[in-house]
Amino acid sequence: MAKGAIDTIVVDGLALANQLRDEMKAEIDTLVAAGHRPPQLTVVLVGDDPASLSYIKGKQRACARIGADSAEHLLPASTSEKELLDLLDRLNRDDGVDGILVQLPLPKPISPEAVAEAIDPAKDADALHPLNFGRLLLGNAQLISCTPLGVMAVLEHHGVSLAGADAVVIGRSNIVGKPVSILLQQQNATVTMCHSRTRNLPEICRRADVIVAAAGSPRMVKADWIKPGAAVMDVGVTEVDGKLVGDVDFEAALGIAGIITPSRRGIGPMTITMLLRNTLAAYRSRKGL
Ligand code: NAD
Q1: Is the C-beta atom of 210 inside 6 A of ligand 1?
Q2: How much is the pLDDT for 137?
Q3: DSSP secondary structure, 3-45, as one string
C-alpha cells in the first residue's frame, strides 16, 4: 500500500488524559461531599535534578486538578539509603497517605530495588513493588505501572482490537516493556518482546498489528517497519538538539500507521493520569470505599 493511503489517527493523549481526570475529579467530589477526606499522594525526591523536580511539580499539579491532596519530601542528594527507608516506613504507617512515589532515578548508592520493596504494596503508586509485579503476572493486580496502563487506555479508547493481534514490544524494562507485554497478552494479543539483542527487528515489526516502542532510541522505528494500518504506541522520549523525540520516525509514519501517538501530548499525559488512577485506587481499597 502506498504511503499516504491511510488517514492516520494522531492520538491526542492530553485530551484523553483530561477526560479521564475530569471523571476522577467527579468521583473525588462525590466522595468528599459524602464526608470523606480526599486521596493523598506523597512524592519523594532525593537530590535536586531539575528534570525530576519539574516532573514532581507536574504530578502535584495533576493531583490538585482532580481534587486530590499531595505532599512532597525533598531530600538532599547526600541522603543515605537508611534515611530514605526510614522516611518510607513513616509514610507507610501514616494513615493520611494513600499513594507513595519515589522519583527515579535515585542517586547512587541508593538501591532502587530496596526502595521499591520498602514501599507498602497497598500504597505503591508507581507499582514497582515485587508483590504488585507478581500480581500483574498472575492477572489480579490492582496497582499497575503507570506508562503501560496509559498505553492500554489509549488502545482501548481508540477501539484497537487486541484479541489475536500480533503485538511487538520494543524494550524490556521493568517499568514499561515487561508490564505492557503482560497487559497486551492478557488482552489476548500474541506478543513478541524485542530488545537490544533482537535480530531482524524491522522484519518482526512489519508483522505487527500493534507496536509499542519503549527503547529510548530516537526515530529507530522507520516507516518501512510499520505494517499499513498498525497501531503505533511511541513511549520513547529522548532529547535531541533541545527537542523531545520519540522512538518512531513520526512524520514518516503518517499515512502508514492506522493510529500513532506523538512524542508530545501522547503517552506522557496518560502516564501521569494513571498515577492519579493508582492513587485513587489505593485510597478506595485502603478505605474500603
Ligand atoms: P530502559 O533504558 O530501562 O529500557 C530500554 C529497553 O529498550 C531495554 O530493554 C533495551 O534492551 C531496549 N533497547 C534499547 N535500545 C534498543 C534498540 N536499539 N533496539 C531494540 N531494543 C532496544 O528505558 P525505559 O525506562 O523502559 O524507557 C524507555 C523509553 O521510554 C525512554 O525513552 C524513556 O524516556 C521513555 N519513557 C517515557 C514515559 C512516558 O511517560 N512517556 C515513561 C517511561 C519511559
Answers
A1: no
A2: 97
A3: TTSS-PEEP-HHHHHHHHHHHHHHHHHHHHHTTPPPPEEEEEE
- Please report the pLDDT score of residue 208 as a whole number: 98
* Residues known to be catalytic: 59, 103, 126
Ordered by start, the domain boundaries in the chain are 37-126, 145-269
From 232, 235, 243, 267, mutation site for ligand 1 pocket: most ligand atoms within 8 A of C-beta: 235
- Ligand 1 mean position to 163 CA, how many Å? 25
In one letter, which amino acid is 9?
I
Q: Which pLDDT score is estimated for 150?
A: 98
Q: In this structure, which CATH number among 3.40.50.720, 3.30.1380.10, 3.30.870.10, 3.40.50.10860 belongs to the domain 37-126?
A: 3.40.50.10860
Residues of the chain with pLDDT below 50 are: none
| pTM of the full structure | 0.96
Predicted confidence at residue 113, as pLDDT, reads 96
283 sits in which H/E element: helix 267-287
Question: Ligand 1: distance of its center to the CA of 281 in Å?
Answer: 27
For 103, phi then psi, to 5°, come to -70, 130
* CATH superfamily for domain 145-269: NAD(P)-binding Rossmann-like Domain (3.40.50.720)
pLDDT for 5? 85
